[in-house]
Amino acid sequence: MNKLLEKLKEKVPGVKYILISMAVCTAIWAIILTKTYLEVAKMRKLAIAEMEQAKLNEEESLKAERLAAADGAKFDLKTHEMMAMYFLDKKQYAQAIPHFKRFLNIEDEQSVLDNPSNFMLLADAYIKSRRAREALSLLAQIKKVLGSDPAILLKEGEAYMILGENEKAIELIRSSIKADSTNSTAFSQLARAISYVDPLSTEIEKFFAKSVELEPRNIESRYQFGVYLEKNARYNDAIREFKNILEVEPFNTLALGRLGMLYFYIGD
């Protein structure tokens, strides 16, 4: 081997440096590939953890609904509607569901036509409570009456994300955006769905950026963008997004918590 190297040195000037350069390049590529593999594995692990948490949240939601239904058994329809809106405002989605179910009748087509927004609020409450299958069942019934409205397609996509069927979610949300390209939340949710399927896709940041461009004060979109940036170790960019949330909602506990952890990571 040494003789071969000596002959190469004689015939090829600078061969020593060429070999060193090749060795360095090989080492760099090995580091890059290892880092990429670890990042993808990290993202997939986080996706699995989210699905497991979703199952626990669904169980808690069902318990909360049963308790709320028992408490509200004697309310009239108008009171049930007021209670549903009250719990939604408080982000107590599981408690809102039984009240919605008391004053809405999904079997009545005219009721859906007269109150489409309330039926969509119920679907959203199911999704926020991580009860994706019930949300999909309700959305399918709404779709029979209203057709493939972009808002329905978006909610179906969100429900499929909870179930871990991200390819289906991407297809539905893309269809929603094709029908209505002005919905900030649709771009944010599309970015999330893609991140579960292909964590290295350049579309992820593109769609998050589009979301906050369309609606700079959309707290949920900025929060999800910040979480994505944080997962990719872009701490300063993530801090920027969480600070933007606090400009809109100074006491947002999720953003404050994330900021605290980020400052701890960077030692500030």
Describe the structure.
- It contains 14 helices and no strands.
- With 268 residues, the chain is mainly alpha-helical.
Largest sheet: none
Distance, first to last CA: 53 Å
Query: What is the tally of helical segments?
Result: 14
Structural class designation? mainly alpha
| Range of strand content | under 5%
Mean pLDDT: 83
Shape descriptor reads globular
Rg, alpha carbons: 25 Å
Total beta-strand segments: 0
How much helical structure, as a percent, in the residues? over 70%
Show unreliable segments: none
Order of helices and strands: HHHHHHHHHHHHHH
Brief sketch in words of this structure:
The protein has 14 helices and no strands.
Offer a few descriptive terms.
268 residues, mainly alpha
How does the SSE layout of this entry go?
Elements: H1 2-11, H2 15-71, H3 77-89, H4 93-103, H5 109-114, H6 116-128, H7 132-146, H8 150-162, H9 166-179, H10 184-197, H11 203-214, H12 219-231, H13 235-248, H14 253-266
Helix pairs in contact: 2-4, 3-4, 4-6, 6-7, 6-8, 7-8, 8-9, 9-10, 10-11, 10-12, 11-12, 12-13, 13-14
